[in-house]
């Protein structure tokens, strides 16, 4: 059975606890609640993946060995989805190859059971700080994607020229339009993207396009 999040500020990041050991889930939830940290527990991978909300700031305490789907299966699925929540793996049967695999695939920590309560709190607090930073960056990228989607096809062509470091004259030549028209498009792009200057957005736009390319899609 999954557990509802413990009471806390609705804006506070949440700790997902995924462990088939009910005692471990409950004790960790109580520990987190004692310091005002919101949590939600799940007995298996499917329950968690069904409930997972990528729009929330969160970290994940994840058991390695579970029936049907292991913690590594969960990690692989989250990576496939492009999720950025920090993962702390826990295991009562951990070894070095297992911890190396977890960390190489993006986990931030690997803890052996039984763990020290204060040390676990410290690790979770560290993960929550990272979760907040990653969530803010994700929100920024999601907003930028929306703004990019509002550009016309021609504006996207002009923006790609800007990203490639071309000046207005070169872009105008490439697109067979006037320099004045390019400048009009540049002004519209700056307005739609909410930027003080297009140059300030180059890195962020490139990051969005690189993510879309890595996901197998064409930059929009």
Q: What is the string of helix and strand elements?
A: EHEHEHEHEHHHHH
What is the mean predicted local confidence, pLDDT?
87
Q: Provide the gyration radius in Å.
A: 22 Å
Q: How many helix segments?
A: 9
Structural domains: how many: 2
| CATH classification, class level of the largest domain | Alpha Beta
**Major β-sheet, in short?**
5 strands, parallel
Low-confidence stretches: 4-10
Strands, count: 5
How much strand? 5-15%
| Amino-to-carboxy terminus distance | 41 Å
Tell the overall outline: elongated
Assign the CATH topology of the largest domain: Rossmann fold
**Computed structural class:** alpha/beta
Name the CATH superfamily classification of the largest domain. Response regulator
CATH architecture annotation of the largest domain: 3-Layer(aba) Sandwich
Helical content band: 55-70%
User: What's the arrangement of strands in the largest beta sheet?
Assistant: 2-1-3-4-5
What's the multimeric state?
single chain
């Amino acid at each position: 059975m999954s557990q509802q999040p413990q009471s806390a500020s609705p804006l506070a990041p949440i700790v997902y606890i995924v462990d088939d050991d009910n005692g471990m889930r409950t004790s960790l939830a109580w520990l987190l609640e004692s310091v005002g940290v919101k949590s939600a527990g799940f007995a298996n991978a499917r329950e968690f993946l069904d409930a997972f909300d990528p729009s929330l700031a969160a970290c994940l305490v994840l058991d390695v060995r579970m029936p049907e789907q292991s913690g590594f299966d969960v990690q692989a699925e989250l990576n496939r989805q492009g999720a950025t929540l920090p993962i702390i793996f826990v295991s009562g049967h951990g070894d070095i190859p297992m911890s190396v695999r977890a960390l190489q695939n993006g986990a931030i920590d690997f803890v052996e059971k039984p763990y020290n309560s204060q040390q676990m709190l410290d690790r979770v607090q560290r993960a929550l700080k990272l979760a907040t930073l990653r969530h803010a960056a994700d929100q920024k990228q999601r907003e930028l994607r929306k703004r990019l989607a509002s550009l016309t096809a021609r504006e996207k062509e002009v923006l790609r020229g800007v990203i490639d470091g071309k000046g207005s004259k070169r872009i105008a030549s490439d697109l067979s339009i006037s320099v004045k028209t390019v400048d009009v498009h540049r002004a519209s792009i700056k307005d739609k993207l909410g930027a003080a200057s297009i140059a300030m957005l180059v890195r962020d736009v490139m990051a969005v396009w690189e993510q879309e390319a890595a996901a197998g899609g064409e930059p929009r």
